[in-house]
Amino acid sequence: MPDLKTKGFSLVELAIVLVIIGLITGGILTGQDLIRASELNSVAADINKYKTAVNTFKLKYNGLPGDLNNAASYWAATTNGNNDGTISPNSTTTTAFESYRAWQQLSLSGLIAGNYSGTATVVATNFGVSVVETNVPALRFGAKSGLQFTAYSTPNLRFMVATESSGYMLEGYIFKPDEAASLDTKVDDGLPTTGKWQGFHWTGGTCTTGTAYQLTSTATTCVMYVYF
Predict the structure, then answer these.
(1) Within-domain flag for 127
(2) Which CA distances in Å does 123 have to 98, 126, 137?
(3) Reduced to 3 states, what is the DSSP secondary structure of residue 46?
(4) Using CA atoms, how far apart are residues 179 and 207, in angstroms rounded to an integer?
(5) Where are the beta strands (DSSP E) in the chain?
(6) Does residue 190 form part of some domain?
(7) Tens digits of per-residue pLDDT, 172-208?
(8) What is the three-class DSSP state of 149?
């Protein structure tokens, strides 16, 4: 009669299988890290592209996008701004948001890709509801990530780098503290309270502590201001 007993794996065979599983798992995790790092680098590239577009617009039309007081003479689809040197993010009417018209006019002028409405639904605080790829541009950093003009005066013209926030302007958390710190270090001074790139959190967040990024936190709890 043949021996019907099932032969098990030897310790050596089990060790080889575990090593292979470890290599596969490690490769997957490394690949995910590389993809995330690439996405992080794309944020800086995209923002530089949009900053260049704004500066080119200013030189060509002698005014800021959204704020230009003769914009309608160039593009019938848009509305004139008040030419006060700011790109205002708030208003009491759906058509008076300079921060949304800015993206519309940059697109109409051919300086950026995409089509933007130039308007927003008004919320009680007189801020508009931002919708990525409808009235603000998307970033290549996960779903619903984008840019919002939040400047009040020059030279403090700035972007907010964030994600959609339900029923409000673009202000949702986008980065973990180590991601914000990495990006800040690559393009600026690595500090959240100084320089052109500044990370921060809303009340209760854990992006920063004092004048440094809170690297012990693994939560997605950072948004960033990028100044011109």
Answers:
(1) yes
(2) 16, 5, 20
(3) helix
(4) 10
(5) 145-149, 158-163, 197-200, 208-209, 212-213, 223-227
(6) no
(7) 999 999 999 999 999 999 999 999 999 999 988 999 9
(8) strand
